[in-house]
Amino acid sequence: MNHLDIVLLTGISGSGKSVALNALEDAGYFCVDNLPPELLRGMIHLEQQRDEALRRKVAVSVDVRSAHSLPHLMPVLAELNQEGHTVRSVFLDASTDALVRRFSETRRPHPLQQSVKPPKPEQTTPKRRASDLASDAPEQALIDTINLERELLSPLREVSTVIDTSLLRPAQLRTWIRNIVQATASRLTLVFESFAYKHGVPMDADFVFDVRMLPNPFYLKELKPLTGRDQAVADYLAAQPESAELIAQIEAFLLRWLPALEGDQRSYVTVALGCTGGQHRSVYCVEQLVKRFAPRGVVLARHREQDAK
Asked: Whole-prediction pTM value?
């Protein structure tokens, strides 16, 4: 049996699937966009018939445009895994505010969205004009459509590696996608991600730890422009007893529960650590935990706010 390396790319419309699919193509994958789930097995079978030297890694994008066929997808994925293929499902998500903004900027309609007629003037109240309600109607319709899409795709999200693209630039998303597909699929991949609470908690986090109780280097003039990856900041935080205690407690928690996650066939776990600005404390803690867990297997570091600069 010729086993293939397959990436299933899915997610909410407007979350960056085109960027991710281009990144996979650059990484050497044969990419197919919007493949109906009923055709997936046939495509895999054809690829298996190719000579070994010509066999390709395959990336398939499936989204809500194939909504009526999505119930067929979960059984197919289970069968492919049972047959020994390496199947990695990646789900791109973003906050509703970010999605509404992106659709507004591109002026492209949502795949599920239907036209919404503005309210008639007699429906207005004295405080609001008809033009105000007319401008609100399309945005509310878009929000309702996004919520419907989330509901339709929720089974896929549950079995996928989730990436929150709300604050990611295209170059940052391409890097994260490459890191995912290069990771060893047979073992659990552990991701430590720093973030700023002022920009919101990452939607892709499995565990979230707040490190804002640690002394903040931001208030020291010589450390303010640096990050947790700089040696001066690392030395300062390492000298604080609270830092070592907190990192040790997070490490102990993960060591206790990671075996259970591995036993549950989880392939990807994201641990998010947040501070006020995502610059000093959370970055330092992520770097320390990556060093501690590196001997256990595939460990990745992400710094949401710093990588975006």
From this structure: 0.74
Q: What does the chain come to in residues?
A: 309
Q: How many other β-carbons are positioned within 10 Å of the β-carbon of residue 122?
A: 6
- Residue-wise pLDDT tens digits, 172-211: 999 889 888 876 555 688 999 999 999 999 998 999 999 9
Dist CA 245 CA 96 (whole Å): 37
Label residue 34 left, alpha or beta by phi (over 0 means left) and psi (-120 to 50 means alpha).
left
DSSP state of 203: T
Q: Give yes or no for a contact between 227 and 233, defined as CB atoms under 8 angstroms apart.
A: yes
Closest CA to 70 of 159, 12, 152, 157: 152
User: Which of 88, 85, 83, 35 lies closest to 60 in space, CA to CA?
Assistant: 35
Count Cβ atoms below 10 Å from residue 208 Cβ, excluding itself: 15
| β-pairing verdict for 57-61 and 189-196 | unpaired
Left, alpha or beta for 278 (phi > 0: left; psi -120 to 50: alpha)? left
Contact indicator for 202, 191 with CB cutoff of 8 Å: no
